[in-house]
Amino acid sequence: MCCLILNGPQMLDVLSTTRVAYLAAVLDGRPLILPLWYELDTEAEIPAVLVRVRQSSMLLRALVQSEQVCMAFSLLREGSVDSVLLWGEAAAGEAQGGIVPLRVTPSELSGRRFLLREM
What we know:
By secondary structure, the protein is of the alpha+beta class.
């Protein structure tokens, strides 16, 4: 399996095309990884990721300890998988009806294309 580096537009394509990502944080010294439905806020130069969680979510407890998070995005293509990692800070908005909006502002992105067969 071969690996290629993704450029900025290719990484943005992955974030724009997929809708489920895995968000990682640390809660009480232990890793916490959650699959989340997300949207992009494309108004900024580097798009922010918007998610919503329940007010009782373990993720909100983790964010009290540290706002630093990592998110993983994957997009299966014919003959390859594009994968993007995003590091950033998550900020919680005001709860509405038991749901809390989170905005993840990226500080760094890294992307790879894994070839599943020789092209």
